[in-house]
């Protein structure tokens, strides 16, 4: 890391040029090649997936999206001559558009069932030649424009709406309002933390370059594999959050180095060497958690995992290469004017935790049981709604009330029954006259089944080997009654009809697909969670040489996910505030949301765990005092963790305004989880538990310690950039005898400029004589070296005085 940082600082213009070239090249390639995202969430290998594949093969003219045009009049009927004439003209105009395969008008001989019984509502089935994402938004928008124009000019109070998967592409969020608001909020927080416009700009520039390159790369990736249509925005959401945060940690360490008297070059090198290692470790845990989705073997989730991981990898790479180059360019302007003035007039000053951070840390130390209990109760209460989780796929009935897709959905449900919006499709493989006879008889059997409103068909393919029957339930697609109907058809009705024949009938359609997909996710969720938590815990075990730290991290991460789910369920499933926020009506939680949330939240939680516990671990290694280690670690890291959390909350919360229900779910879930993780778990519950457990926090069996490989997040004391042999202070052996007072835990001697921070007891080379006497400092000889110790009464200026003496030497 030291070599990389020095190389980037020395060739900062080249580093900046390489990143700009990568950004421009990726964006240009993406614009020329285009993208091909998928909105097909079918689970391959399931019965509904098999039905969809068979239907596409037997009826290739139906492979495009099937949408619906709905019109309603409050005065008269849709059979009125003026209404029929105007709508018939509009339907013919739409059918003549490029990309439109067919339009089934209700005004034909076979269209009577497409007019409601009261005559106030009618609909036409519209089929595109190809999936809407391949057609492009402009072609689909022309369909909507013609339909809307018919309603505007026909009179008779005619309302015309359009719904369906293809039409939904015209309602995708266009303006990047969420990203703009998120970045603006992050900029405000950064400026309040730094007080310098130059320092504020660097995390934003780093994150935007990384996210922009990743977004273009995700578009190219979609040409090579299945990538869900929400993956680019999810990647941007994650990338902005972690990218700004990672840069924040490094810039904070760089500014600390400048204030302590380091040169710009050495401060930047040390920042990357120390904080950059933690950033790489944190980024690796996020990627491991995201790539855990690959074990689910769902093609569109594979694309999501790789897309999000690409964004994180580029964010980490920009933080440890582009950022140090930019730090070298702005020089001391990383400090505010006031800080630069103080540095010039008063000289360097070591950073010491002061103010609220120190008082809060001491408060937690005094009341660990009470505060721990309060935090645990709060997390448990927020997690309670998770017990009522209903997994399912939201449809256009959950869209905002003003959208044309939502209004078309409501008009169909009111005029023809709720099941019209999600009919079931029975696809049969027919082989011979016996199978055909049984399939012809199937509609009569289904009509006698409870929960069925209407049955149409059968219809056979040109070759006659595939038959289709459409079943309209009397309940909505998201209703449990519709799911029960699917189970009855599969488990009771169809086996009886197929008995004694070779007929094979599969139940497909909206609800069947949703249920199958949710079942696949739920079945594999325990394995997925176990793998992700197991791998993350193993990394923590290697880094912190402790059994307790990984176990607490696993429990805390599960608590954060459960509490965040409670918030999501209250907003989206119960509908608390969803309509005022423009998120549509209450509905089920997307089946893939738990998977992606566990991946992302586990990775993000590991960030805070690493930054908090690594400082505690460093203090523990130096002092062996658990109480002081927890107090110092919390007081010194809480401010940067809280600042990072506020930035993430602002970025994630802004995506509620994206106009996309799925992305809004992610935004609220991640914002809630980060808020709870940073302000309840990491700054309250975790330190309280660590105070209560004492030295058991750091227990590791000797036999296991000897067998585990060494993995260090922080560089060893005395090995930092700028350190020469003998200039870094190393911990004295625990068994080291010698005269003089016992070193006091936690008093840190600031070493020479360029040396890593030292412990309470440290060694200096023999011959470094003439160290001035300072109150509270004792120098004792031991095996030809000097042992330096500070008593409890030593003033804080003692360490500063020793550092000043080393500078003179």
UniProtKB/TrEMBL annotation:
Transmembrane segments: 177-194, 201-221, 233-251, 278-300, 306-331, 370-391, 525-544, 556-576, 596-617, 638-657, 663-685
Source domain of life: Bacteria
Localisation per UniProt entry: Cell membrane
Residues of the SSD domain: 218-329
Region (Disordered): 714-751
PROSITE patterns in the cross-refs: SSD (PS50156)
Keyword annotations from UniProtKB, A to Z: Cell membrane, Membrane, Transmembrane, Transmembrane helix
Membrane topology summary: Multi-pass membrane protein
Cited Pfam families: MMPL
Signal peptide, first to last residue: none
Main location: membrane
Protein family membership: Belongs to the resistance-nodulation-cell division (RND) (TC 2.A.6) family. MmpL subfamily.
Name of the protein: MMPL family transporter
Species for this entry: Streptomyces iconiensis
UniProt lineage: Bacteria, Bacillati, Actinomycetota, Actinomycetes, Kitasatosporales
């Amino acid at each position: 890391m030291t070599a990389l940082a020095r190389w980037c600082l020395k060739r900062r213009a080249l580093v900046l040029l390489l990143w700009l070239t990568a950004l421009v090249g990726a964006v240009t390639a993406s614009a020329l090649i285009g993208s091909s995202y998928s909105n097909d969430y079918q689970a391959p290998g399931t019965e509904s997936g098999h039905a969809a594949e068979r239907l596409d093969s037997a009826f290739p003219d139906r492979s495009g999206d099937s949408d619906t045009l709905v019109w309603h009049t409050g005065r008269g009927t849709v059979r009125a001559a003026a209404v029929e004439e105007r709508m018939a003209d509009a339907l013919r105009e739409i059918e003549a558009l490029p990309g439109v395969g067919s339009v089934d008008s209700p005004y034909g001989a076979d269209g009577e069932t497409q007019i409601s019984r009261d005559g106030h509502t009618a609909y036409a089935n519209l089929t595109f030649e190809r999936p809407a994402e391949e057609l492009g938004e402009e072609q689909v928008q022309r369909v909507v424009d013609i339909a809307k124009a018919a309603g505007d000019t026909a009179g008779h109070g005619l309302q015309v709406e359009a719904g369906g998967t293809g039409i939904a592409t015209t309602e995708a969020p266009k303006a990047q309002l969420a990203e703009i608001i998120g970045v603006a909020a992050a900029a405000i927080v950064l400026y309040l933390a730094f007080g310098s416009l130059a320092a504020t700009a660097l995390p934003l520039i780093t994150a935007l370059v990384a996210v922009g390159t990743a977004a273009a790369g995700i578009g190219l990736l979609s040409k090579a594999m299945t990538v869900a249509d929400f993956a680019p925005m999810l990647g941007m959401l994650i990338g902005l959050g972690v990218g700004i945060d990672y840069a924040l940690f490094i810039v904070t360490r760089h500014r600390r180095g400048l204030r302590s008297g380091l040169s710009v070059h050495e401060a930047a090198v040390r920042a990357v060497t120390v904080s950059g290692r933690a950033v790489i470790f944190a980024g690796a845990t996020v990627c491991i958690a995201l790539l855990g989705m690959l074990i689910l073997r769902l093609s569109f989730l594979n694309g999501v995992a790789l897309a999000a991981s690409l964004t994180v990898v580029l964010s980490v790479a920009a933080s440890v290469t582009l950022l140090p180059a930019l730090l070298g360019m702005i020089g001391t302007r990383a400090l505010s004017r006031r800080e630069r003035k103080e540095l010039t007039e008063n000289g360097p000053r070591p950073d010491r935790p002061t103010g609220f951070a120190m008082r809060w840390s001491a408060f937690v130390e005094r009341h660990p049981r009470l505060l721990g209990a309060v935090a645990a109760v709060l997390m448990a209460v927020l997690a309670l709604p998770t017990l009522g989780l209903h997994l399912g796929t939201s449809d256009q009935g959950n869209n905002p009330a003003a959208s044309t897709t939502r209004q078309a959905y409501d008009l169909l449900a009111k005029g023809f029954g709720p099941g019209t919006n999600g009919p079931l499709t029975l696809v049969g493989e027919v082989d011979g006259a016996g199978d055909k006879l049984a399939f012809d008889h199937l509609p009569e059997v289904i009509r006698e089944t409870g929960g069925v409103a209407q049955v149409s068909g059968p219809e056979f393919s040109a070759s006659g080997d595939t038959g289709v029957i459409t079943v309209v339930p009397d309940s909505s697609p998201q209703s449990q009654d519709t799911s029960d109907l699917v189970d009855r058809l599969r488990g009771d009705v169809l086996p009886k009809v197929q008995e004694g024949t070779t007929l094979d009938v599969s139940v497909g359609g909206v609800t069947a697909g949703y249920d199958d997909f949710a079942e696949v996710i739920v079945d594999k969720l325990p394995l997925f969670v176990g793998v992700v938590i197991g791998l993350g815990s193993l990394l923590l075990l290697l880094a912190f040489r402790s059994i307790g730290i990984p176990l607490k991290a696993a429990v805390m991460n599960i608590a954060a996910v459960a509490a965040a789910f409670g918030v999501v369920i209250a907003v989206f499933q119960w509908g608390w505030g969803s309509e005022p926020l423009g998120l549509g009506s209450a509905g089920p939680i997307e089946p893939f949301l738990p998977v992606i949330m566990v991946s992302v939240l586990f990775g993000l939680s590991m960030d805070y765990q690493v930054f908090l516990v690594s400082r505690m671990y460093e203090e523990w290694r130096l002092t062996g005092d658990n109480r002081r280690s927890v107090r110092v670690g919390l007081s010194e890291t809480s401010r940067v963790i809280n600042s990072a959390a506020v930035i993430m909350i602002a970025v994630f919360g802004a995506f509620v305004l994206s106009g996309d229900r799925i992305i809004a779910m992610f935004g609220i879930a991640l914002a809630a989880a980060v808020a709870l993780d940073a302000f309840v778990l990491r700054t309250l519950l975790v330190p309280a538990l660590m105070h209560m457990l004492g030295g058991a926090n750091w227990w590791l069996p000797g036999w296991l310690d000897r067998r585990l490989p060494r993995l260090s997040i922080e560089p060893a004391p005395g090995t930092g950039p700028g350190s020469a042999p003998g200039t870094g202070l190393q911990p004295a052996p625990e068994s080291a005898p010698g005269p003089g007072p016992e070193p006091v835990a936690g008093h840190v001697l600031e070493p020479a400029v360029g040396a890593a921070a030292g412990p309470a007891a440290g060694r200096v080379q023999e011959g470094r004589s003439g160290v001035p006497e300072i109150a509270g400092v004792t120098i004792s000889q031991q095996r030809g070296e000097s042992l330096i110790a500070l008593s409890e009464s030593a003033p804080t200026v003692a360490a500063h005085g020793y550092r000043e003496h080393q500078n003179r030497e």
